[in-house]
Amino acid sequence: MLPTHQIHPSIRVLTMTVVMHISVNISSALMQPAMAADIRFGGIVPGMGVIQKNMNSMRELKFTDMVPQHTDFSCGAAALATILNYAYNKNLTEEDVIEGLLEVSDSEIVRQKGFSLLDIKNYTQSIGFRGRGYNVNPATLEKVTIPTIVLLNYKGYKHFVVLKKSTAEKVYIADPALGNRIMKRAEFDANWNGIVFAVIGQDFDRESILLRPKEQLTAKTLTDSFHPLTDAELFDFGFVRSDMLGL
Fold this sequence. Notes:
The protein is an alpha+beta fold and 247 residues long.
């Protein structure tokens, strides 16, 4: 680096302008909500014009490829919307699913306790899918090879999340309240009721993004993540041949 006394005065002015410009933009950004935005840089270097870059907020990054919940009682609706959208390529909002669930449930009970698995099952049937609950031994949880809805109990607070994948040490979930996250297997097992709820129907995406949760990339995880589901694996969770053939 050149000594300060050897730096040309015009470069000093340009450097100070850049620092002040960036400082003002950062200060302004910190005062705004954490939302995605187009960041524009202009007038810093003569002749360069305007540079524009789209930035995603931390919240948006946490909720990538899933549907977040926006009410206290809609974790089940958001979890179901996540599976329908990202495993069956539907285009449903949380509000769409809430409206459908309210048509097949008791609104007063929903206000007090939220939606139940029975409500979710009835709604899935009303739109041409089948919903089935399975009791799963924790020792065989890794054999669940499709995204499912599970109920967790956080210190008395019952909460639906999407189980994407599990290993002997970790469980990957799409949490409608907290976003995509990884739980320690022991913590998950301690708070899970042992039931998985599968949504079964035609046009299941065997390479759904839900089955490929992001983690530290290695050659093995890259190979495993793109392993397509076999018909036998789908049949284990209630799929029938007509589902496979799209009949």
